[in-house]
Write a structure and sequence with these properties.
The protein is an alpha+beta fold. The chain is built from ten helices and 13 strands. It has one domain (46-345): Glutamine Phosphoribosylpyrophosphate, subunit 1, domain 1, CATH 3.60.20. It has an eight-stranded mixed beta sheet with strand order 4-3-2-6-5-1-11-12. β5 (201-206) and β6 form a beta hairpin. α3 packs antiparallel against α4 (69-81) and α9 (262-271) packs across α10. The structure holds glycine.
């Protein structure tokens, strides 16, 4: 059998399924989502956002030892969640507008078709791990806020203050500078800090047996309105796995991703035989068509950043970003490396 079904085989199979529906074929056959990729990866591949270089290395080594891809991925992203210097994830993440760190995470395990997620979780350093507990131990998929925290505490997670001095200082400067008409005195020498940083780590994995998983974790958009949930907590947006096809996930402006269910859309493109990098680019084009004019500049280019990452069942991988110059992390052939993302638009230099 060839590694990939040809498009004709695929259309034939799909037609057969439609005919089967008329003729009363077995329901499982009629409802199964078509998959083009049929050969397992035969090797371990891990793809992540650029802040995930240590994560892909850790996850890759665990996959080589036979550790399950979801366990390996979460062990990898936890490095960033626990790192106080990474202000986009977990402990040390930038807070909401009231100075409270609220974390989002979600994950999927391809072999068991399970998913778990938490949103607006306070006081727990590793939301990806809490999402994994939701996946394994509940009949639900998404827990939020106080309920998510109580759930985590019940499993022995420790409640801690996640606002590091570094993140607090950045937040205080933002608060001082955010508006000319408010009652906070400006701090002009740090005007550069009056931006809305966003960051996240997404990690997608396939092992030699073709078992696939994905995980995304974030502290979300800095200075967000309390209670705001981004794409990272949403299965199908921040990450998605279909064990027959592949996995995908995102970093960047969550609101723009949520409207196109970007991780799901990317996996669906791969299901149709599109390579991972092209699948990511297709999703970004859809994001642009769904973007409100207020978020586009005079040339129709987005005023925000967004990147997708993907791996398929045979171990092909890729990433694409809205703007040039972004990179992503990969583990393959027993080593970790950063690679350039494909992109839709050339990034403008400052002042041009
Ligand atoms: N992509 C992370 C967020 O928007 O929260």
């Amino acid at each position: 059998m060839s590694d990939l079904l040809t498009r004709r085989d695929f259309v034939g199979a799909a037609t057969g399924m439609a005919a089967g529906a008329v003729l009363g074929a077995a329901p499982a056959r009629r409802t199964a989502a078509p998959a083009i990729l049929v050969r397992p990866a035969g090797r371990n591949v891990v793809v992540a956002s650029s802040n995930g270089l240590r994560a892909v290395e850790r996850a890759g080594r665990l996959l080589a030892q036979g550790v399950d891809p979801l366990e390996a991925g979460i062990d990898g992203v936890k490095i960033q969640e626990l790192d106080p210097e990474d202000t986009s994830v977990g402990y040390g993440g930038l807070p909401n507008e009231e100075g409270v760190v609220q974390l989002d995470a979600s994950c999927m395990h391809g072999p068991t078709k399970r998913a778990g997620a938490v949103a607006a979780l306070e006081g727990i350093k590793t939301p990806s791990e809490v999402a994994k507990y939701v996946l394994w131990y509940t009949n639900h998929i998404l827990l939020v806020g106080e309920g998510a925290k109580r759930f985590a505490l019940s499993y022995g997670f420790k409640e801690e203050n996640l606002l590091t001095d570094k993140a607090r200082e950045i937040w205080l400067r933002w608060r001082a500078n955010r508006g000319a008409a408010d009652d906070w005195l400006d701090v002009p020498e740090d005007a550069n800090l009056v931006v809305r940083p966003t960051g996240t780590i997404n990690c997608n994995l396939v092992n030699a047996k073709g078992e696939i998983s994905s995980v995304t974790t974030t502290s979300g958009l800095a200075w967000k309105i309390p209670g705001r949930v981004g794409d990272s907590a949403l299965v199908g947006a921040g990450q998605y796995t279909d064990n027959d096809v592949g996995a995908a996930g995102s970093t960047g402006r969550g609101e723009s991703n949520i409207k196109v269910c970007g991780a799901f859309l990317t996996v669906e493109s791969m299901r149709r035989g599109i390579k991972p990098t092209d699948a990511c680019l297709e999703t970004l084009k859809r994001v642009i068509t769904m973007t409100e004019p207020r978020l586009l500049d005079e040339q129709g280019r987005p005023r925000f950043g967004l990147t997708f990452y993907a791996v398929n069942k045979i171990g092909e991988y890729g990433s694409a970003s809205l703007f040039s110059g972004d990179r992503y992390a990969v583990w393959e052939e027993d080593r970790a490396a950063l690679r350039d993302c494909a992109y839709l638009y050339q990034r403008r230099r400052r002042g041009s």
